[in-house]
Structures are given as structure tokens and as C-alpha cells.
């Protein structure tokens, strides 16, 4: 018989003395609050009703994630930390919730073309909700580019946390990012994606290993046990969803979402929650100037263990209840200025792009060579994403000064683009036009001051 | 033997004369056309997902019996940008370097995440011919 208490979703947190009472917090979430609506809708989107029988249809006997988690389990146990599940029998994960996720993911795998998958993601409730708000619309555009891009997540994340250091915004990103990561993990190219995910988020494992409360350890070990015993992707997914679900406010036993579950996870168990939903946790740490290195994580854990009402937890609690301070959303007022320096496409009337450029910048003839911001090879590598008229439009042309320095910069640019293409090519997908322009914007912001005329608002 | 992750110079891109098969859902290049947009002089070049090397590098790698690679022809052209910028520059002969080895075992291999992985002896050969613009970092098993 399975020891269900070991399952991540069944970890008992109700005995926590300071855990909020259910009635205390229900008023904190309202349909009129965009953030609250996002949370409610997130639950509906990820966990719509589905029977275990339906989910069983998607079971497979071998899945790269299972083996990866088993490796994780071995490495965790190798540390000599308590291993409460090693003597447990077969673990029967909670049915329903994660099965739904599997269904969704397999449906995505069965989709005929990557472009359609992207389209589904694009039209999800999450973006509709964000974009339905005039206030949040500019922010939504940035977040969408970030969340939908499987590449350069570190750079994008840095940008977001530096530019939008708002807990409310970060919460939205964190919530959006987590199902995105899961989607990536369980999609066709799961092995490569898992490797990439873990490489990009080494702190995920780090925090789990450093967690002296053992909850994260138990949760991951429970996932590993489930995967090892049942050897199915479904079991693994159930475990992952249960583990992360609590941090999204989902009670895996009752299969319901509650604000108090959500809040309890973040206020009273911040470390475990950081481990479960790393992107959000890491961003919060970063705001506090904490790099989640081994030493600092240990310090954080120690303080969290001594007193669950750490200043960090208290501040998070305040912001969860009251929302982000209004002044922290002031960046939205500058969004128009920001968009003015973004890379864009226009419509060229000729493919002779040099004529187009010098007609606009006659004084630069002989001074610069003309290059494309979004590279021409995109037409070959990802046909159909950009038209020739857009490619050769004046908006997509850059003047590169003649000389050795220009040569080095060009080499840097080509390398940047090559790195950008890599994950798309490996997964058989294609970047969207918005993603290409976002990359061009990044490059403009890095090197645009060297161009003539300067690009990227410098 | 030690192995290294290498990120070669990117001198250009995959040109329009390439034949690309997408029937499997992946991008498989059947015939390679590499256009140069610039060139800092390295003998090993990349444009994801393809690599090319100079004929001299091919011969040297063959002479040491490098594993995990095969060669094919590549059509090389220069872009208008290249012609404007380097009107007198002559390019050496290049060949398509196709990699089918296992990273950390063969002299050339492709790892899921870091990409191209080469052995120490392959690195020595390439360094001798010139790859000063490549980024090279030690590769660890399991990476």
C-alpha cells in the first residue's frame, strides 16, 4: 500500500501554527483584480476536469523525464540526507489533476505542426486576460515574448526582473512560466529540453538539496519513487504537478484551488515554494539582492527555519494581500517610449536594400555597409515567418561602420543569432516574428550605439 | 582524453540554394549552401545546424583518423555585404563537416545542450590551423 503521506500534494502543512485560516483570506482575491483573475483562470486552464481513464490513454512506458528524476533521486540520496520514501511501497499519486496536464501535453504533441502549437499558446486565456486590461497590455506583450520563447531565458529574465521589479508582475510571470516549463519538459524533445532547463536553473536542484525542512526533498523523492515504481510519464507528471500545484494554490487531495493554499505555500513555506516554482522564487530573491548561491541559500533556509515569519516572508505576504505598490507599476507609463526604440519591420518596395538604406541616409554612403537587423538567412531557415518585403524594409536595415571594429561587432551579432536559432532548429519549431524582433531589439540595445545611424534608443 | 565544448566562428548563414527537408518535423539539410557575410579567419565555421571546415583542416583531421565526422561538398558564396566590405578577399576552399559522433567518446560529437564537443587532439589540430575566434570551454561528462 502506498504511503500517501509522502506524496508531495499530501504533505501536511495544516499544523503550521501561523497558517492562515480559510476565512481570513478569501476576501483577498477578487474577480476585479487582474492578478487574482489570472490566478483563478490559471487553475481553470491547467486543471480542467478529466477522468483518470482519459489520462491513462496517454501513458507511455518510457519517458526521459522519469530517468532524469531517478538520477535526481540518486543524487539526493547520495548526499546522505534522510530518505523517507526508500522503504515505501508503490506510490499511488493522486489522480485527476496531473492527468489533465498530461492530456494537455500529449494533445500538444499530437498537434500536426509546431506553428499550431504556438498559436494555441498564443490564444490562451492567460494572454487574453492580461491583454484585456489597458493597464497591463504593454506588460503583457513583454511577458508573452518572454514566456513563449524557449531560448535565452536568462537574458529575458534578467531584463524582466531589472525592468519590472514588481512582485505583482513577477507573480504573473512566475505563474505563466511554470506551465510553460512543464510544457517544454513534456513535449517531444523532452530530453534536450530537460537538460536545458536544468542547466538554466541549477538552483532548482541546489535549493532542494539545501532545504533542511526536508519537504522539498520528500516531494522530489516522492516524484522519483512514483516514476521509478510505475515507470510512466503519467506518474512523473502527477508528482510534478502535485509538487508545483500546491505552490499554485491547488489542493491535490480535494482537487480544488484555494487562496489559502496558495498563500500558505508562499508565506509559511517560502523555501519549498522557491524550489517548486523556481523562476518566481529566484526573481523574488533577486529583488532582495540575494544570489541563490549555496551559502546564501543556506542562510535563507536557516532564517526561514528559525522563524517562518521572516521579513522576506512577511513582505511577500503583505504584497500578496495588498498587491504591488502602485508606484511600482509606473513603468507602464514609459512603455510608449520603450516601444519607440524597438526593432520593427516595414514594407519595402524593392529588394535592393542598399538603395533603400542610402535613399534614407545619403550622407552615410561610403561610410557604412548595410546589414539586416533580422538576418536574411531567416528566410531560408524559417520560411514563412518574415516576408522579403519586411526583411528588406528600411526599419530592418542597419548601417555598420567600415573598419575592423565593425567586423568584430558583426561577428558578435552573428554568434548571437546563431545561439538564438539553435533551440528552434533542434526542436523543429520556428520563432515568431515578435521573437525575431525582440532578439533584434536586444542586439540593437547591446551594439546599436555602434551603428550609423544609432539604433536601439542609444 | 579531455573533451571541449566549442562554439565556432559564425561567418555567415545557410543560403537559399540549400536543400532542406522538413518532412520529419525537423530541419534536415540535404544540400548545404553557406554564404559568407564576413570572416575573421577561422578554419571551422558554423551556421546552426551546420559546420564547415577548410580543405586543409579536412586533410589534417583525416590524417589523424578523427572519428565522428564525415565530409561532403558545400556551395560557398559571399553576400552583397561581404562583397562591399571585402572586395578583394579570397576565401579558401571549404567542405561541409557532418558530425555523427558521440560527445565525450568520438573526436567530434553533438551534445544536446552545449552543442559541438571535440576531443583534445582534434582541438590541437584545429588550433594549429586557426580557430582564434571560437569559444572553447572544457566539456564534462553528463553535461
How would you explain this protein's 3D organization?
The complex is a heterodimer of chains A (458) and B (143). Chain A has 25 helices and four strands. Chain A is mainly alpha-helical and 458 residues long. Chain A folds into two domains: 4-334, no CATH class; 353-450, no CATH class. The model of chain A is unreliable at 1-33, 43-126, 146-198, 203-241, 278-288, 290-298, 307-313 and 323-340 (pLDDT under 50). Chain B has one domain. In chain B, 17% of the residues lie in helices and 40% in strands. Chain B has three helices and twelve strands. Chain B has helices spanning 55-63, 80-85, 120-129, and strands at residues 3-7, 12-14, 19-21, 28-36, 44-47, 50-54, 69-72, 74-78, 94-99, 108-111, 115-119, 135-138. In chain B, the strands form three sheets. A four-stranded antiparallel β-sheet of chain B has the order 10-11-1-12. In chain B, strands 2, 3, 4 and 8 form a four-stranded mixed β-sheet that branches. Chain B has a four-stranded antiparallel β-sheet with strand order 5-6-9-7. The chains are: A mainly alpha (458), B alpha+beta (143). Chain A binds chain B through residues 114, 188, 191-192, 195-196, 199, 354, 369-371, 375-377, 379-381, 402, 407-408, 410-411, 414-415, 417-418, 421-422, 425-426, 428, and chain B through 7, 9-16, 18, 20, 22, 24-27, 35, 37-38, 40, 46-49, 79-81, 84-85, 112-113, 115, 133.
Describe, in short, the structure shown:
The complex is a heterodimer of chains A (458) and B (143). Chain A has 25 helices and 4 strands. Chain A is mainly alpha-helical.
What order do the helices and strands come in, and which of them pair?
The complex is a heterodimer of chains A (458) and B (143).
Chain A: H1 22-25, H2 34-46, H3 52-56, H4 64-78, H5 97-110, H6 114-122, H7 125-131, H8 137-148, H9 153-163, H10 167-186, H11 190-200, H12 202-210, H13 215-230, H14 233-247, E1 250-251, E2 256-257, H15 259-268, H16 270-276, H17 278-287, H18 294-306, H19 311-322, H20 335-340, H21 353-360, E3 368-372, H22 378-381, H23 388-391, E4 397-401, H24 404-427, H25 433-447
Antiparallel strand pairs in A: 1-2, 3-4
Chain B: E1 3-7, E2 12-14, E3 19-21, E4 28-36, E5 44-47, E6 50-54, H1 55-63, E7 69-72, E8 74-78, H2 80-85, E9 94-99, E10 108-111, E11 115-119, H3 120-129, E12 135-138
Parallel strand pairs in B: 4-8
Antiparallel strand pairs in B: 1-11, 1-12, 2-4, 3-4, 5-6, 6-9, 7-9, 10-11
Helix pairs in contact in B: 1-3
